[in-house]
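We both want to read discrete structure tokens more fluently, so let's practise on a single case. Once you have written the record down, we can walk along the chain together.
***
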Amino acid sequence: MRNRKWLVKARKSVWRFLGWCFLLGCCTLIYAKLIEPNWIEVNSLQLTLPHLSSEFNGYRIVQISDIHRDRWMTPQRLGRVVRLVNQQKPDLVAITGDLITRHSPKLIASLGFPLAQLTPKDQTVAVLGNHDHDNNTKAIIQVLVQSGIYPLINDVYTLQRGSAMLHIAGVDDVGMGKDRLDLVIQQLPNEGGVILLAHEPDFANTSAATERFDLQLSGHSHGGQMRLPFFKPLVLPPWGEQYYWGKYQVGNMLLYTNRGLGMTGLHLRLFARPEITVFTLVAPNS
């Protein structure tokens, strides 16, 4: 009799436990599907760059990445991102690749109007990502140019304050074998700080070894997109497995990996909120 009562209680406890697990799972799914993907974090950092001229002290760069225009990332959602970026009063906006999700060429033109509303004091610059190269890259570049955005396809954009210079360099996508860091370095003057845009963050091991760059800005990893707190994400893309989230020191170069705005796969985010990053640059001894 006692054994039977114990068995009944044990079964009730198991069913109660399974019920709570089911409820927790449902709540987590709702959060990851409906709440976190729309909960954009505006993350602000001050970075001291060793070769930054005092004329650029306080310069504000706003980085966005991995827009992944698709059925979820509508022009309306992208328009909200643009408004948040403009509220940060950027001197320059940097877009670090994957503007559109792969195999979505019909959506390329719809990037134009929202991106044209970006209002930095100086310029918006952009590099391409691996998803962009699975689309019509010529059409993407054309939309960028028509929107007033400077595409950094293994190129350098130089900002000037009097005789002082700040160089914004960009390599084409590393994972697709389109990067030509040698061409970028050939274009760099000896004077002035240099910031490199590269979609894939793990490229920092290569770029830092040149000792030509003060800072690399990247995206690609989505911060894992789905992860558990305090643990490394179980799934990370190639070239985004080592430096997948936040600020790192790689040799003498700083690296920042932005978590991106859009999603791929299941279109869920868990403990990896979408991100807009605001960098205030600080000159040494300022």
About this structure: Helices lie at 2-35, 75-87, 112-116, 137-146, 181-187, 204-209. The CA atoms of residues 2 and 266 lie 49 Å apart. Residues 1-38 form one domain.
